[in-house]
């Protein structure tokens, strides 16, 4: 389940970044105002945060599993 979850969150973050980039270009052309762009910036930041938190949670779970199995940390 972890690989699919991480991939989904990474894809969501990438899509949010791409959407933000397009909305910033629309703002430069005068099609959007700052409040709309800020909303997309917030969404992109949230998507990045969720992806990073999931990666941290995965690493912690993996570390806990290895510790339970008695495996030594590797560099």
Any overview of this molecule?
By secondary structure, the protein is mainly α. The chain has one domain. 83% of the residues lie in helices and 0% in strands. It has two helices and no strands. It has helices at 2-28, 34-68. Helix 1 runs antiparallel to helix 2. It is rod-shaped, with a radius of gyration of 18 Å. The mean pLDDT is 96.
Number of domains: 1
Low-confidence stretches: none
* Overall form: rod-shaped
| DSSP E strands, number | 0
Q: Determine the structural class based on helices, strands and strand pairing.
A: mainly alpha
Instruction: State the helical fraction.
Output: over 70%
Tell me the Rg in angstroms: 18 Å
SSE inventory with pairings:
Blueprint: H1 2-28, H2 34-68
Features:
mainly alpha, 0% strand, 75 residues, 2 helices
Offer a quick outline of the entry:
The protein has one domain (2-65). The protein is built from two helices and no strands. It has 75 residues and is mainly α.
């Amino acid at each position: 389940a972890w690989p699919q979850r991480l991939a989904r969150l990474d894809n969501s973050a990438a899509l949010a970044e791409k959407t933000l980039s397009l909305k910033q270009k629309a703002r430069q052309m005068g099609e959007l105002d700052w409040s709309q762009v800020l909303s997309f910036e917030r969404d992109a930041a949230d998507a990045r945060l969720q992806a990073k938190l999931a990666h941290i949670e995965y690493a912690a779970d993996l570390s806990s599993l290895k510790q339970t199995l008695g495996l030594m940390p590797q560099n």
